[in-house]
Amino acid sequence: MVYLQASIKLRPGKQAEFVAMLNKAAPVLAKRGVKLLGSYASMVGRLNTVVDLWEATDPNALQAALSDPELQNMAPQMADIIEDETLTLLTKLPIG
Using 50, 70 and 90 to split pLDDT, how confident is the model at 66? Predict the structure, then answer.
């Protein structure tokens, strides 16, 4: 398994639209083997920040999911909602 952390800076006032968009995108990504583990909004710190954590079977599944045509159709809406995004690919440490 690999994990994707998306640190997202939303445009002001767009959190509700982001949630609606994510509720549409998550099932599309799940069909490609990428599961949303959680989406979290900042309470303190940088305003309008969301962190999503995704799980994928491997990096190739992640690339295939992001290339899905249905997800690509959402790109204009994403650009209207998201000001900046940083994606980080993670691996789980053997702890516990």
Answer: confident
Q: How far is CA 26 from the centre of its chain?
A: 8
Which distant-in-sequence residues (6+ apart) come within 8 Å of 48 by Cβ? 9, 10, 11, 12, 14, 15, 42, 83
CATH architecture of the region 2-90:
2-Layer Sandwich (3.30)
* Alpha helix ranges (H) inside the chain: 15-31, 59-66, 69-72, 75-81
Is the distance from CB of 18 to CB of 42 less than 8 angstroms? no
Kindly report which listed range (9-13, 29-33, 61-65, 75-79) carries the lowest average pLDDT score. Answer: 61-65
